[in-house]
Amino acid sequence: MMEKVFHIPVMVDEVMKFLITRDDGIYVDGTIGGGGHSEEILKRTNAKVIGFDIDPEAVKFASERLKSFGERILILNKNYASVKESLKEIGVEKITGFLLDLGVSSFQLDHGGGFSFRFDDKLDMRMDRGYELTAEYILNNYSEREISDIIFRFGEEPRARAIAREIVRYRQRKRIETTGELVKIIDKVASKKYRLKVLARVFQGLRIAVNKELDNLKIALDSVIDIIERGGRIVVISYHSLEDRIVKAFFKSNERRCICPPDVSECRCGKVQVIKILTKKPVVPSEREISSNPRARSAKLRAGEKIFEFS
Ligand SMILES: C[S@@+](CC[C@H](N)C(=O)[O-])C[C@H]1O[C@@H](n2cnc3c(N)ncnc32)[C@H](O)[C@@H]1O
Hints:
Blueprint: H1 12-19, E1 26-29, H2 36-44, E2 48-52, H3 56-65, E3 73-76, H4 83-89, E4 95-101, H5 106-110, H6 135-141, H7 144-155, H8 160-173, H9 179-187, H10 195-211, H11 213-227, E5 228-238, H12 241-255, E6 275-277, H13 287-292, E7 300-306
Parallel strand pairs: 1-2, 1-4, 2-3, 4-5
Antiparallel strand pairs: 5-7, 6-7
Bound molecules: S-adenosylmethionine.
């Protein structure tokens, strides 16, 4: 029987190269998904792995997959933005490495939830069914301006205003309930040539808004820096420029030393360099990986090492 695949992990060797610094550490996989990256950490070290995922299906799948590692693996059905508090609750104060492999898993894209424009489904898009906000709520209740902002800011779609106008026009006649209806609305605005790009951008924008993905990323990075041990690493794989920009800015601001104005002769801010950036340019998958796993196409990996500890 073929092994059930939840998600093919991206850039496995590259992730391991940057993340693993100690054989006996504690590594946190903030987005355990199908457990592919975690399994590699467990196989290549004697370390402990603590996984997070907001999707209970992912937690169930990864727990089953990794159960043979016994007490070396612990999986929490929690948001990675709560990493610091959640680890404190279980008595973990310091970790060796932190991995984020952002976005949705292939399983989530292919199994309902309204993440994909390729299937007709309910317009939900919540990775955590405990959230109240859904894509359907946004589309039927937010103002035209708010919808346009979401599509423009989070989807980076230039025709956001026209699409929002069409959404509001449609909902005056009928509530928008399915991804199929949303696709039809977008098709009224998008040209045939760019249709797939526009659909992908609008769906991305809504998904980011529903799941507060950019806020979660910022919160997680800002808090995890406190609990990474000196010499430990932070590794993030992002799949679009909005995420990548946040990761890049986070590493840069923690790499900077003094931020006093240039006319000050002696440093007064006391800012120290906390992170050493290990990837001056983002690492991208090989052509070979992209051809065998098209989802890897837009992946960008950035990594940094903590070099300073406040005592
Ligand atoms: C791309 S998949 C990770 C795949 C994983 N690296 C593997 O090897 O299978 C992203 C996962 O992150 C989860 N996720 C997204 N946002 C999250 C958040 N804020 N907190 C915890 N998990 C999150 C999703 O539910 C999904 O399962």
